[in-house]
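Model it.
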Amino acid sequence: MSRCSRLLPLARSVCSLTARQIAPRAAFHRPAPQSCRTFATPSLPKDQPHIRLGTTAPNFHAKTTHGDIDFHQWLDSKRAILFSHPADFTPVCTTELGAFSKLKPEFDARGMKLIGLSANDLTSHGAWIKDINDISSTNLQFPIIADADRSIAFMYDMVDAQDMTNKDDRGIAFTIRSVFIVDPQKKVRLTMMYPASTGRNTAEVLRVVDSLQTGDKKGVTTPIDWTQGEDVIVPPSVKTEDARKKFGEVREIRPYVLLS
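Modeled.
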């Protein structure tokens, strides 16, 4: 028997083994990266955009308790706060809307428009507002969006991973408590996300509005727990001498920590 004929069976065996080892690997492929989160929710878009600070707030058309709106037209180059609620006639949401209603004069004084969103229809909203006014001794005057199909909630990513399994009788996920602060250029400047079980702090929403507006007006930043009237931080890029010329009294805690 020649050397070649003796090696032929071995070569066939090696080829067969290699094919079996390689085949599963060849069948494996890495899925293409996706730029959007996806949810398999009935009647809602599959792709969900990310809402990042500095991006333009997505536009939408909606029915509200003050009539139909185009969100960007409703903004009218003003500052605004969009905040969502899981459902009408729920205890936490009722207390929140009552609190925002009572603080509306403070938001008005800062040039802020308020608009709420709840995942029910207009008929439900109208009856619920009567409860809110009665329970909180207020007179709610800002619009509430009717988002019964959660289309705006999904557009603004107002649903968390757990809530995707927390669905209503139509199989649609409930929303969480979200806050979006939008500036006159329609840019999202701040977001807050709360679980449905935790009520928001309206004083904190007002505080961050003051912080944003102070920073825009004076070119400064604000330290932890800052409230209006307290010391602000001069950006580290500004030298102490230049800061004193611009802001007057400046305290140098460190070369990179200047308070005014």
